Amino acid sequence: MNDSNHGGSSGPQQGSRYVPPHMRTRSDNPRSNGRGGGSSSNWTASSDHAQRSDSWQSSRSDYGRSGGWNDRGYSNRPNFYERGSYGGKYSRGDQEYMPRRDESQGYWKNGVHHIAPRNPRIEHDLFGAPEDNDRQHTGINFEKYDDIPVEASGTDVPEPVTQFTSPPLDQHLLGNVDLARYTTPTPVQKYSIPIVEAGRDLMACAQTGSGKTAGFLFPLLSKLFSDGPIANLPPQDMNKPSYLRNRKAYPSVIILSPTRELTCQIYDEARKFAYRSWVRPCVVYGGADIGQQLRQIERGCDLLVATPGRLVDLIERARISLSQIKYLVLDEADRMLDMGFEPQIRRIVEKEDMPGVQDRVTLMFSATFPRDIQFLARDFLKDYIFLSVGRVGSTSENITQKIEYVEDEDKRSVLLDILHSSELGGLTLIFVETKRMADVLCDFLLSQNFPATAIHGDRTQRERERALDSFRNARTPIMVATAVAARGLDIANVGHVISYDLPTDIDDYVHRIGRTGRAGNTGAATAFFNRGNKGIAGDLIDILKEANQEVPSWLESIVRENRMYSGGKGGRGRGRGGFGSRDFRKYPQQGGGGGSGGDNWYRGNNSGGYPAPDMYNSYGGGYGRGSNPVAVQYQNKTSWF
Asked: Which branch of life, at top level (predicted)?
């Protein structure tokens, strides 16, 4: 036997002594000499071990990075399992606001905004390629937006802009606007940009898909880019251990929205237009790991997009301070105030450390602002401008609407006929009223070999995100949804919206069909109507007439039949002149009236009804005849409630 194969000693060969793995690298280990010791086996770390070690290091190399764009780029929505951060720190002496390592994030130093270099890979992730269908830009009918009427009421309304220019917008923001291929401001943007730049409060109504998100993001980010970060943050006691120091985030902007999906969508837009700047957007919402969200905001948060419930949670944990808020935005404000978020919003706005209404700018955006919601919202605004774009509360002429009379038992067969015969391109979104029906109808479509998915409130956040991603990318071009997806979501290339179940509120119908025909593109909307929906028949006719759509003769017959038995048209009504939202300050005594009665008899049109009681004039008032016992009692003056 050749001893050279067993070590380098000249003495008699002895059996090797066993050395536990954890001791094999110690200097007193006779088998260890450098990496191989004197043993001829020359043991060293295997290449597989080295690769795994490198991979482990690489997978965590971005944990401490600053800036929103780590070396992994972007996903379609925020992913808190990839810890790209928005790090950086404030230095109050010389106004420094610099990231630590990530070169794709800009910074603020000595009163100067330093823009990061361009990154082609990040730009592709954020803005897409010109032919990318997942990024919706302007459509073939976009030029018709110039013909949409705009009504702005309030004192000293600024003149609208006609182009994206500097001023009033920051030059760096204009560069990102160009990357997003926005060429011409929409009507809501033409007015909102100078209004926000002038520091005015705003309540804005504009049809769905008309650019409301950019309408508030553009001027807010422009102001942040030019004004720089907050200079008067509470000082840190550097003598304390890090875990005892103040770990609060102090954002300058809070954007509240009612749903997780809309919150993520606004955040994605904020990342896009904050690209290469010092501004660090963050997002928090329920259903996701709060620990990951906390780590994100700890690294810096200048613009926070949040759902009200999760924001309250973080405030209670003393991780978010509202003391430095300059701008408060309520997106889909009418829905938040109407669906149970009012106590949380009042707590956030009135009972925490947020500056008072006189010391901040407050913006409210939605497609509809009923009169009673306007009355409620005025508590959060000061000397505000009411912006009404187009037939506010109505639908777009870009959407071809069709109302079909279908009994409940025939809905499935009619739906299959539509899907089989449809020649429309793009995605199909089907709305139902209940979560159970969403699952049942989705399973039925799958059994009929239609690729479908479903989204509703009982699905987990991960399931909802997967369903939306699959729908957006056309892997499942049919999606069945409840109202969770009806508000605010901007899904490109939705060609057809089907209201399998009509809602009881006409405003919900407006928001539903607004998922198509967005940004000047054309689309189609089909609704299944039967006698169970007669409460919104009159409002539905108003919607069709406003958008120059065909009104079925049978629908008009149902409305005439309703009027024979009640004073009003049924439902909530559309307000004066068919406008769903007009500035109630200009029409304080305008009656509404619930037509065929119901719990909301004081909210509506008052067509053929009686005058509203004085105490409800601010809410629209009014009621119909006969079918509402409370209204009848008031009419006869025998009792009140």
From this structure: Eukaryota
Domains 118-232+246-390 and 405-524 are alike in CATH topology: yes
Local structure of 629: helix, strand or coil? helix
Tokens of 194: 């100078």
* DSSP reduced 3-state for 48: helix
Is the separation of the CB atoms in 208 and 163 below 8 Å? no
Q: Which two tokens stand for residue 249?
A: 């985030």
Nearest residue to 293 (alpha-carbon basis) of 302, 303, 283, 280: 283
Residue 172 and residue 176: Cα distance in Å, rounded?
7
Letter string b/e over residues 242-265, b meaning 16 or more CB atoms within 10 A of that residue's CB: eeeeeebbbbbbbbbbbbbbbbbb
Tell me how far apart the alpha carbons of residues 74 and 216 are, in angstroms, rounded to a whole number: 23
Q: Which H or E run includes 108? A: strand 107-109
Surface-to-core class of residue 580, CB atoms within 10 Å of its CB (0-12 exposed, 13-18 middle, 19+ buried): buried
pLDDT digits (tens, 9 = 90+) for 582-623: 787 876 654 443 333 333 333 333 333 333 333 333 333 333
**23 in Cβ contact with 43 (< 8 Å):** no
| Distance, CA of 261 to CA of 456 (rounded, Å) | 11
Residue spans per domain, the chain: 118-232+246-390, 405-524
CA–CA dist 403, 311 (Å, integer)? 41
- In 3D space, the residue among 323, 289, 293, 292 whose CA is nearest the CA of residue 306 turns out to be 293
Beta bridge partners of 552: none
Q: How far is CA 527 from CA 365, 418, 432, 531, in A?
A: 26, 11, 11, 13
What would the pLDDT profile of 146-191 be if each residue is shown by its tens digit?
A: 667 788 989 999 999 999 998 899 999 999 999 998 888 988 999 9
CATH architecture designation of domain 405-524: 3-Layer(aba) Sandwich (3.40)
Residues 6+ apart with CB under 8 A from 353: 321, 322, 323
Q: How far is CA 417 from CA 1, 16, 387, 451, 550, in A?
A: 85, 81, 42, 16, 21
